[in-house]
Amino acid sequence: MQDERLDQILSAWIDPYWQRDWWTTGCIERRHWEKGELLLDVALPYPFATRAEALATSFQEHLAAAGITSRLRLRLQVPRRKVESGLAGLQSVKNIVAVASGKGGVGKSTTAVNLAFALAAEGARVGLLDADIYGPSLPTLLGVKPGTRPEVADEKFFRPLPRQGVEFMSMGLLVTEQTPVVWRGPMATGALMQMLTQTLWSDLDYLIVDMPPGTGDIALTLAQKVPISAALIVTTPQDLALLDAIKAVEMFRKVAIPVLGVVENMATHVCTQCGHEEAIFGAGGAQRLAQDYAIECLASLPLSAALRQSADAGSNLQRHAGDADLAGRYRHLARRVAIALASAEVIAANRIPNIVFS
Fold first, then answer.
1. At what angle do helices 217-225 and 239-254 cross, to 10 degrees?
2. Which of 73, 187, 269, 287 falls 20 to 30 Å from 276 in CA-CA distance?
3. How would you classify residue 30: left for phi > 0, otherwise alpha for psi between -120 and 50, otherwise beta?
4. Residue closest to 163 by CA, chosen among 195, 141, 131
């Protein structure tokens, strides 16, 4: 078969999640014929582990319709997104994603944890940083026993705690539940920067940062000092929550951090007795916010007893048998976040200046 004809066939198939073809985007790294069979090496820029078989089958059926027998080898190659602020990135971390909200109580930490779990379930290497200095909740959500402390290396570096497929760091690992952090803004910000830069993160595709609620001093300083690739805003349909979510969007825009989209949490409640679904906190607010700011509403998540149970138990929803549909929604959110990052301008060479500690 002529190369030109093969190029046309390859570029005619569109990835159902990425909405782009693999050939013209350069995902097909190598192709060659062997005994009448087309062998393809494909590197995708977004995690796809649970969809690998379906993707390969769909692509092979497309080729088979053109009379081509094929074999595929799929692998994950997450690109590093260029940081518009010009701040030096972390050498071992490709992308830092801030999960933020304009106010507390909207499920921001729960969303951050389950986004991290979902990315890991799809095959990515994921870290999780609890940036809420005053009210760290990730140790509880991850089921960490009280009194657990991170290991220290060379008397100045923390080793992140591995937990259910992700590694994480939190101020909650450094203080007890009965010890409040009574610090002014600069002290809290300094502690947060130390946790970020002096933690020995593995080679990560994504570091999810659970931001403190609101747009106060810590959140703003973090946005200005940390090389955040993009932000994700969590809200509920309530008008009050949406007003605060707007402030969070504006804060990130002022510091030149792109907002990937908005996640509408607690959008509906489904009655366990009759199955009736009701938008008890209102409806359509997140969609209006997304439309007004030309961003996407990436997910609309319901109230869920299974989610509450997994959070209380500190267990991974992706491994929880209570609500497979909700776990699937978080994986869908994870793919959309990863694809949004991959679709932006990226740095080809993953060489970032070393951070020197003094």
1. 40
2. 287
3. beta
4. 141
SS3 170: strand
Residues in CB range of 73: below 8 A, 6 or more apart:
39, 40, 41, 42
Give the torsion sign (CA, 140, 146, 150, 156).
Answer: positive
pLDDT (tens digit per residue) in 82-123: 776 667 668 899 999 999 987 788 889 999 999 999 999 999
CB 265 within 8 A of CB 102: no
Helices (H) then strands (E): counts for the chain: 10, 17
Q: What whole-number distance in Å separates Cα of residue 134 and Cα of residue 132?
A: 6
Closest listed residue to residue 197, CA positions, set 87, 119, 120, 123: 87
Angle at CA of residue 222, ends 137 and 228, nearest 5°: 95
Measure the CA–CA gap between 231 and 43, rounded to whole angstroms: 25
Mean pLDDT for the stretch of residues 111-138: 91
Predicted TM-score of the model (pTM)? 0.88
Which helix (DSSP H) or strand (DSSP E) does residue 96 occupy?
strand 93-100
CB-based contacts of 14, cutoff 8 Å, min separation 6? 20, 21
Domains of the chain: 3-76 (3.30.300.130), 80-347 (3.40.50.300)
